[in-house]
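Minutes, project huddle
Topic: does the predicted pose make sense with zinc ion bound?
PN asked that the exact inputs be recorded in the minutes so nobody has to dig through chat later. Recorded below.
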Amino acid sequence: MKLFILLVVVLLFVIWKKYQKRLGEQDSQDAASPARELLPCSVCGVHADKASLSLTTQGRYVCVQHREDRPH
Ligand SMILES: [Zn+2]
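Predicted holo structure (tokens), as shared on screen:
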């Protein structure tokens, strides 16, 4: 029973650590690009970070799911 409690505590600690790390990563991303631009995908209209969008040959921005080089 003691081992079980120890296991639960370790598990909670690992989850908490992962959660803290994820929060830290989000903070650093925001700090690195404070003026990040959100643009709509010209196919589905979903807004996404400009850096994650792709520019088509027509000069329009599309999300990763609607890239021309990706088969549907
Ligand atoms: Zn799209």
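Observations noted during the meeting:
- DSSP finds one helix and four strands in the chain.
- Residues 42 and 62 are 5 Å apart (CA to CA).
No decisions taken; revisit at the next huddle.
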